[in-house]
Amino acid sequence: MKQNQARKWTEDENKFLISAIRRGNTAAEISKYLGRSEKSVQEHCRKLKIVVSEIKEKQKVAAFSLADVKCPFFEKMYRGRSVRCEGLTPASFISMSFSNEGDWQKQVKMHCNKDYQSCPFYQLLSQLYEK
Q1: Total count of domains within the chain
Q2: Mind listing the pLDDT tens digit for each residue in 44-77?
Q3: What is the pTM of this model?
């Protein structure tokens, strides 16, 4: 196979991908297991519009797609309670936890997906990169 030609995703890989995302695994973790690049995993998630997080509360399911995320510092969502962003150093991260799902949804919809430049973490991290 040519180097620039992507290997097709198998049905088993798709099933594993969905299961791993529901367990909260990152694209980096999934890529190591599947022997694919992290970028390949992220692109495949976007292509399939795979849900990043499913939150079940009183038979209600709230779902967000990676394709909706606009913030360049975003890393991961955790089951309706927290958001993880890049940290102040390469080996760190910032996590914002919420006491309820409603507040978490507001944060994700407003700051991760839409107006990310108004997020306090974005402002802090962007100042760090400017220096």
Answers
A1: 2
A2: 887 776 644 332 332 233 456 667 888 888 888 8
A3: 0.50
